[in-house]
Amino acid sequence: MKKILVSALLSCFLLTTFSAYATRNSDERQEARNIKQDARTQGRRDKQDCFVNNNKSNNDCRQDKRENRRDGRNDARDARW
Prior knowledge:
It is a single chain. The protein has about 80 residues and is mainly alpha-helical. It has one domain. The chain has helices spanning about 1-55, 60-80. Helix 1 packs antiparallel against helix 2. The longest helix has about 50 residues, at about 1-55.
C-alpha cells in the first residue's frame, strides 16, 4: 500500500515539475520568436528606407538588412539561453 501511495505522489510531483518546465520553455521560445520577427520587420523597413533615401548602393542596403537580422538572431539566442 505504501509503495502505491509513494509512487502516486512521486508521479504527481514529477508531472507538475515537467509541465512547469514545458511552460517556461514555451514562453522562452515564444519570446525569442518575437524578437526575431521584430528584427525581420525592422530589417525590411531599414532596407526600404535605404532605397527611398538612395543614400547607399543596393549592396550596402542589403548588408545593413543582413546585419540587422543577424543582430536579431543573436538577441533571440541570448533571450532563449
